[in-house]
Give the backbone structure.
Amino acid sequence: MTAMVKKEPDAVVAGRRGDGATESDELRQYLTFMLGGETFAIGILHIKEIIEYGQLTTVPMMPEFIRGVINLRGAVVPVIDLARRFGGKRSEVTRRSCIVILELESEDETQVIGAVVDAVNEVIEIDPDCIEPAPAFGARIRTDFIAGMGKIHDRFVILLNVDNVLAAEDLSVIGQLALEADA
């Protein structure tokens, strides 16, 4: 069985759908992007917006996967390097590089975080029947970072588990970073 693919260009810009889609429809929509030559996807409910890669301010003594902070309309937003977070080399910035702004829920607060990606592809819809469990081996990233493997046109897209990619202890470091930058 292959996945249903539906492009939603307005959703890429806005990060949200305004066409009255139900929550169950939303759960099957993913933003796909490139990272190190592989295609990854994040559920669009976590996506706030996508911005051009711009001026980052580096902060000393942060974990290697934290690239720095940006000023997003007056708010300090920490930016992570997903490739580095996955244990790979630091992402090279090209003209197609973007920062995907994510909203993550942790206990009683919402954390806004940027993630550097090589290029954004499109918003797609994947039928739940076309999602396989995370492989026990073979992936170049930790299996707890993978929510599943979405089959699209006879190839797989790695569906990320954003809550595990940015676990609670990482969010506390990033939250502290934002507080220090505001001071």
User: Anything to note?
Assistant: The radius of gyration is 16 Å. The longest helix spans residues 168-182. The helical segments are 9-14, 23-26, 82-85, 162-165, 168-182. The CA atoms of residues 120 and 153 lie 18 Å apart.
